[in-house]
Task: inverse folding
């Protein structure tokens, strides 16, 4: 079978200092009222953060396999402003807010056109294989600083 561009997963990318990740609301994302279930906004944001890390060259799986460590969400502050509905095309906009030795805080907005539907600050801690906070790899800190200074 011949390969097609449609055989490749969707990837977001950067516009200036903002990472943009587009998605569509499917039936499985909604609750009985026909609106996006509140916890699914966190899933949308997770996909966008993971894609952002990949886009800057951070290989989380390789770091985990090598025993370097992994990111884990330590804190989320989220505000739901308007509901998304079945069929809506959404955009998750992510911006690095703060980089510390063992964590990174990312501001994320779920947008429908120009409307902000959910607004969150997510802090991810870098953990060693024993789930204790650990300094992030220096190269990763530099990557975060580069994208936050664009």
Result:
């Amino acid at each position: 079978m011949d390969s097609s561009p449609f055989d490749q997963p969707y990837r977001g990318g950067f516009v200036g200092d903002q990472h943009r990740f587009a998605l569509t609301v499917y039936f499985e994302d909604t609750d009985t009222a026909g609106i996006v279930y509140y916890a699914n906004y966190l899933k949308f944001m997770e996909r966008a953060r993971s894609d952002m890390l990949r886009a800057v060259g951070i290989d989380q799986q390789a770091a985990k396999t090598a025993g370097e460590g992994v990111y884990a969400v330590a804190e989320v502050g989220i505000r739901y402003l308007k509901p998304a509905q079945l069929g809506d095309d959404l955009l998750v906009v992510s911006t690095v807010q703060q980089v510390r030795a063992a964590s990174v805080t990312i501001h994320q907005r779920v947008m429908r056109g120009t409307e902000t539907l959910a607004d969150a600050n997510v802090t991810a801690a870098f953990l060693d294989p024993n789930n204790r906070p650990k300094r992030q790899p220096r190269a990763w800190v530099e990557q975060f600083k580069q994208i936050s200074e664009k």
Remarks:
- The chain is about 25% helix and 35% strand.
- The beta strands are 13-15, 18-24, 70-80, 89-99, 103-112, 115-127.
- The two ends are 42 Å apart (CA to CA).
